[in-house]
Amino acid sequence: MIPGAVEAARAIAEGRTTSEALVRACLARIAEREETVRAWAFLDPDLALAQARARDAAAKPVGPLHGVLVGIKDIFDTADMRTEMGSPIYAGHRPAADAAAVAILRAAGAVILGKTVTAEFAGTHPGATANPHDAARTPGGSSQGSAAGVADGMVPVALGTQTGGSVLRPSSFCGIVGFKPTFGTFNRAGIKFAAESLDTIGLHARNLEDIALVRDVLTGREPGGIAPLGNPPRIGVCRTPLWHLAEPETVAAIEAAAGAIRKAGADVDKVTLPDPFAALSEARRAINDYERARAMAHEWRTDRDRLSPAMQRTVASGFATPDAEYRTALAATEECRRLLDDMLEDRDALLAPVVNGEAPLGLDYAGDPAFQSLWTMLHVPAITLPTHRGPNEMPVGIQIVSRRGADDLLLSVAEWTWMCCGLETSPSTG
Amino acid sequence: MIPGAVEAARAIAEGRTTSEALVRACLARIAEREETVRAWAFLDPDLALAQARARDAAAKPVGPLHGVLVGIKDIFDTADMRTEMGSPIYAGHRPAADAAAVAILRAAGAVILGKTVTAEFAGTHPGATANPHDAARTPGGSSQGSAAGVADGMVPVALGTQTGGSVLRPSSFCGIVGFKPTFGTFNRAGIKFAAESLDTIGLHARNLEDIALVRDVLTGREPGGIAPLGNPPRIGVCRTPLWHLAEPETVAAIEAAAGAIRKAGADVDKVTLPDPFAALSEARRAINDYERARAMAHEWRTDRDRLSPAMQRTVASGFATPDAEYRTALAATEECRRLLDDMLEDRDALLAPVVNGEAPLGLDYAGDPAFQSLWTMLHVPAITLPTHRGPNEMPVGIQIVSRRGADDLLLSVAEWTWMCCGLETSPSTG
To answer: Backbone dihedral region of A396: left (phi > 0), alpha (psi from -120 to 50 degrees) or beta?
Structure first.
């Protein structure tokens, strides 16, 4: 397996490997597996190798990601790579500039390996990517190429975006770590908007220290790793109002995780979301569709027939959603955000389902985003950890959620929790 | 003077004029005045006429702006017009798609007359536009072409954006109405971000009914005009902590307006912003610069020398601003938003200064945005009305502010207030 981002940066810095060697290793893995996994929307080996050689030729590292490879979901603009957003409308499209996140990664020394497959405009109409654990199953969506590529060892870390469940769901389905920071954490200039008040840039990796490193780079912090918890955390187990949708493997994962953290000394209690949260599913439809319709106003006006039927339905729903209904949904959601702030005042984090179960069979449906959408609406930071397996030996994650702005605490609690649950992959050695 | 948007739509619908005739009238005005005012970054008469003829040839109106002309600040993407953002870096740049707001206007029947001059990337380094009332004076910025073009009668309405004071300041300097809705009201897909958590799309027009019409179109509402107030409003006069910066003409405007509304029956009291608001100026620097630096990460990495010295300073400041300082500034600002919500619970609106005074002499400095930045930070809807004149006969506006989400109430209070102050231009017949 290729090294993780932290390990790669260290190996390059110590002269034990080169960026070019890492690119060649990734390209070899991709050559072997891409026909099955189909994770990449754009990949030019020469362009990746040229970036790597430039890093290797530098007199000193340009930043903490010097020579480290990153995959970029194909709704981020890239000036040197096509940006097609999973839509025939943008076939061959080459933007004038890099998205902010891409430019910041490059400035920190990263090598952009290529663009990963996205569902159409980061929506629900999936691309061709398969689940690396079972190619007959969906990898989830919409950040499907990013999750599958990381899970298959084609690239150590990748950028994704989440408007409903687009980072954490595919991460769970593919058995990797998915991180959605507090809303607004990573600058969104240069991404295609889905629903502006929800779209959150997130990260896919195989371990938490890689997540922390890329998070630090994108926010301009000195890379500082993850602080260990001083004491076992206070964690609320939150089944959410959607618990009846949870398959047995999700029920088992949450209950096993709750048992493990309790055994390890966590102060565990049960948290029930109060009544207003039950309205969030419908509020999400109103907000997502209203904002999506406007973000797609150009394509709707000029190229409607080349949108998928699913996207056409969403946009039509959004333009039919009255402005007053949208504003009411925004206000109801903001009220829930404040309620959750209060509920998290005397708890460090919540343990909650991340998906309803294993990745379903078939590539036409990327799975149910409902468990994730709730937390995306709430703007809270969330992590999924690949702690469990289902009846078909497919990954099933758990989710840790914390307060808005408490991303550091979230990472610490996640690392502690992963240790308690027993690691499939050590967070330290990825 | 060319008709306003409401009047133009009515005249076209009733067969009293055509969109082509309106375009020709605007082009004639531009031909006469553009050498002095320099409001346009891109204007292709044939393209504008072709759009107008297509509207005139339609069997029925496509929407409430059928045939109505709109100017677009040159940081909105347009698929059929160059989008240069006031920077040599984007000379000749042609985006692949229209920004959401532009596409929605077109879908409602609007004719996009052209792109208006913006300060570099909607920042502080101005373009060449002059104030139509005195070409030796700045029109303000950054939406300078939009404000000057509307004020000079070149186009009835125009889109702008405000991150500090970029819509209301030039509107006051140029003697027109400027409207900044509640943060998040108009979809921002396809604009160049300055500071993502502050950037607000706004409108420039000569009267309030045109503002209401375009607002209704962009939010998908049935155009409904402005509801008259049932009773005189409750208005707090808020001098703000910046009152010592107000020139005599701004002091006179606010005091005259306060007297006029009191005389007309408003329940007027004095509002003092509590201590936390005093920290907003410094919080704004942190937020603006931190977010701006990231939004400009690509240009900073690839084309730094072609950024203005002012922009280089802002970006450098932003990358030097610690993430923790930025997060603290966000939290302090959010706290002020909640405090202001409380203060506006038993008031309909505030009357406050919009600028420190008349437009200053010279085109190299677009004036002080401080009075506006405060309200942009607070995400509240705000309107400036061209009610007064200064010692040099230059316009000096007043400002009405209301609660987040109370944009309807704001428009009603603004109309009532303008009537009280005596109209330079009737809001109904513009």
So the answer is: beta
**CA of A328: which chain B residue's CA is closest?**
B405
Residue A40 near residue A145 (C-beta atoms within 8 A):
yes
Q: Which pTM does this prediction carry?
A: 0.97
Q: Which pLDDT score is estimated for A426?
A: 40
Judge whether B373 counts as a catalytic residue.
Answer: no
Given this structure, which CATH class describes domain A5-219? alpha beta
User: Please, where are the H alpha helices in B243-322?
Assistant: 248-263, 280-295, 297-302, 309-320
Contact across the interface for B323 and A193, Cβ inside 8 Å: no
Cα–Cα distance measured from residue B101 to residue B171, given in angstroms and rounded to the nearest whole number: 20
User: Closest to A107 (Cβ–Cβ): which among B197, B297, B323?
Assistant: B297
Buried b (16+ CB within 10 A) or exposed e, B316-326: ebbbebebebb
Q: What is the ipTM of this complex?
A: 0.96
Q: What is the pLDDT of residues A367-395, one digit of tens each?
A: 999 999 999 999 999 999 999 999 999 99
Confidence of residue B429 (pLDDT cuts 50, 70, 90): very low
Backbone angles phi, psi at B347, to 5 degrees: -135, 150
Fold classified for B1-430: Amidase signature (AS) enzymes (3.90.1300)
Confirm if B167 and B62 have CB atoms less than 8 A apart: no
Q: Do A229 and A409 contact (CB within 8 A), yes or no?
A: no
Question: In chain A, which residue's Cα lies nearest the Cα of B92?
Answer: A96
Segment-wise mean pLDDT, segments of 10 residues, chain A, 430 residues: 96 98 98 98 98 97 97 98 98 98 98 98 97 98 98 98 97 98 98 98 98 98 96 97 96 97 97 94 97 98 98 98 97 96 96 97 94 96 97 97 97 97 52
Asked if A317 is an active-site residue, the reply is no
Of B102, B184, B291, the CB nearest to A187: B291
The tally of CA atoms less than 13 A away on the side-chain side of residue A203 is: 29
Closest by alpha carbon to A135, among A125, A124, A143, A144? A144
pLDDT, tens only, B120-136: 999 999 999 999 999 99
Q: B138 is written with which tokens? A: 């700045």
